[in-house]
Design goal:
Layout: E1 2-4, E2 19-26, E3 29-36, E4 46-51, E5 57-62, E6 80-87, E7 100-108, H1 112-118, E8 120-121, E9 123-126, E10 133-140, E11 144-152, E12 158-166, E13 169-176, E14 184-192, E15 195-197, E16 200-204
Parallel strand pairs: 8-15
Antiparallel strand pairs: 1-6, 2-5, 2-7, 3-4, 3-6, 9-10, 10-13, 11-12, 11-14, 14-15, 14-16
Length: 207
């Protein structure tokens, strides 16, 4: 799949832009190529590989992440004429239907840190309801520090704060909060610098 930036394949200066954004769903790794007018050999173009899952989700990629096997220099995006999305082939000896759907392909002048700060990520709590001992589960795209706050939903008061050192991938944080006054609703808030997770409710206590 490819997208021309201008009719006739005329190159465009993208120096003012910092990020490539799109929505995608599929079941394979894709190679994204930013085609430079000045690069004659296709193998020397700047590319990036990313896995695409079955969920239709938003992707944001910094233009500085694109690399060329022919140069150690960062990409000069002053003469880009198209974007090419190539689906990965199935493993040798296997027959797999490769699927890919793309939409909302665009370039943004906002940097990746700012874009990620606007994305709200999911948190799951287990078990919920809980007797006071439960796990906060979430995914992280890299290592970073987070603050976990437990808020009494009725009063808005923070009843517990815990520092969390998240690692890339799946994370599970054990929490113990006893409530001796019957069942009570709490809000779990998990946030960090330029990272936001969805606030989630949990019921703690005995019936």
């Amino acid at each position: 799949m490819y997208k021309l930036l201008r009719a006739g394949g005329i190159s465009q200066d993208l120096s003012a832009y910092k990020t490539l954004k799109f929505k995608a769903t599929g079941n394979s790794t894709i190679t994204i190529t930013l085609v430079k007018q000045s690069v004659v050999n296709w193998a020397d173009q700047y590319t990036l590989q990313i896995p695409v899952s079955g969920d239709n989700k938003d992707y944001a990629i910094s233009l500085t992440d694109f690399k060329s096997t022919a140069s150690n220099l960062p990409i000069d995006v002053s003469d880009i004429n198209s974007i090419v999305f190539t689906m990965g082939a199935a493993a040798p000896g296997k027959s797999t239907a490769v699927q890919l759907a793309l939409s909302n392909v665009s370039f943004s002048k906002e940097d990746l840190v700012y874009i990620r700060s606007l994305q709200v990520r999911d948190v799951s709590l287990y078990p919920n309801p809980s007797n006071g001992v439960f796990n906060v589960r979430f995914k992280a795209d890299k290592d970073y520090s987070l603050t976990l706050n437990i808020i009494d939903a009725a009063t808005g008061n923070v009843v517990m704060t815990k520092m969390v050192n998240a690692t890339r991938g799946e994370n599970s944080v054990p929490v113990e909060l006893r409530n001796n006054s019957g069942q009570r609703m709490y809000i779990i808030s998990l946030n960090g610098s330029n990272v936001n997770y969805k606030s989630t409710k949990i019921v703690i206590g005995k019936n």
